[in-house]
Amino acid sequence: MQQPRPRAPPALPDHLVEQILLRVRPDDPATLARAALVCRRWRGIVADPAFRRGRLALHGGAPRMLGFLCDGQWDGDGIPYARFVPTSSCVPPSADHHGQRAFDAHHGRVLLHGITRYDDLAVWDPITDKMVEVPRPPGSLGDRSKKATVLCAANGVCDHIDCHRGPFIVVLVGTNNDIVEVDVDNDYIEDGLDEADAYDIMWNGIRRIPKDMFACIYSSEFGSWSEPTYAEYPDDDVCWNRSALVGNALYFVLRKFDRILKYDLQTRKMSTVRLPYVRTKMIFTDFVRIELTAMEDGRLGFARVEESNELCLWSRNEDNKVTRDEDYKVEGWTLYKVVDLKKLFPLVDSITLKYCLVGFVEGVCVAFVVLENGLFTIDMKSELMKKVYEGHCMSFVAPYISFCYPALEASSRDDGPKVGTSSASNA
């Protein structure tokens, strides 16, 4: 007598499937996409907007680092270009951008600039692989220094969970020169040849004198640049390091690394903020690179290497109170965390450690350092180190922080007996 075929196990109730899928890691959108292909019921669960809200509530509303962009010489021809390195299952179709380098990244978008012309700007969405070219800013701006970044156009009223497909703005700041023609034959006859005269001769009598600093905003909604606003030259120039967005203010690094530039997005006014002195026992110290960041509590912070091998994270005091660290009096700043790099990299000399910092991940206290042709992350909370990439001549890293969610349309779940009710429908 033929044995009866065993019955198929009953289908999992929708609410159990939902609870299982809710626990897929936020940095693994590929698993959700594969789950949505199992059947219409599962696709309907994943595509439900309430399911997305449930995931945010379970895992926290903060976006995750899905990858990073770094500049390097990848082809051996000596010409660096931007490369996207994934740290999650979110892998963009176009990872390499020949002829372009990364300027900055915010709110799920990356700002790229041309190698030969820095004002050839483009905004790239790694999730959709959409590239939008930005018109060149007014030609008279930034002939001394410039730095730009990209933001969601609704900053201040948007939660930035899924705004990378919406309108954006590009904020450009920099410094300008005054061009003065001098007589290189007679200028130094009376007082002798000095350093300024030597430059005049080198540049055929064209003297570039610092003039002012400026800010200008491009809007994707209007397709044009705003009228520039100006401020007094701060006796310094804008650096290429990443900017930091804290509240309604953007902060940019200045080249001397002793102050930072603050740009208020509402008032469009510019000012400078002084940084604490470098903690060192040396009488003289050269410029020490800093990386700006937004702290987990929403305050402004910055990282730098001090005492030759200590990776230090400083946090801004909102009440501008005075704190003390050993013999150093610091106004408005608190030393938040110190990591001994020599313990993590005992075979690396102190000179190399001093210049190893190349990036910082906002909100999670993770630093990027380059050592011996390798790129490492350092979690400043756990003091754990991890090698994340191997390459040459990397001097800039821009973390890509966003939510990546399968682009699905809600469909009917009626491909079989429906068992249970999805709790997401009540969220």
UniProtKB/TrEMBL annotation:
<dbReference type="InterPro" id="IPR001810">
    <property type="entry name" value="F-box_dom"/>
</dbReference>
<dbReference type="InterPro" id="IPR056594">
    <property type="entry name" value="AT5G49610-like_b-prop"/>
</dbReference>
<dbReference type="Pfam" id="PF23635">
    <property type="entry name" value="Beta-prop_AT5G49610-like"/>
</dbReference>
<protein>
    <recommendedName>
        <fullName>F-box domain-containing protein</fullName>
    </recommendedName>
</protein>
<dbReference type="InterPro" id="IPR036047">
    <property type="entry name" value="F-box-like_dom_sf"/>
</dbReference>
<feature type="domain" description="F-box">
    <location>
        <begin position="12"/>
        <end position="55"/>
    </location>
</feature>
<dbReference type="Pfam" id="PF12937">
    <property type="entry name" value="F-box-like"/>
</dbReference>
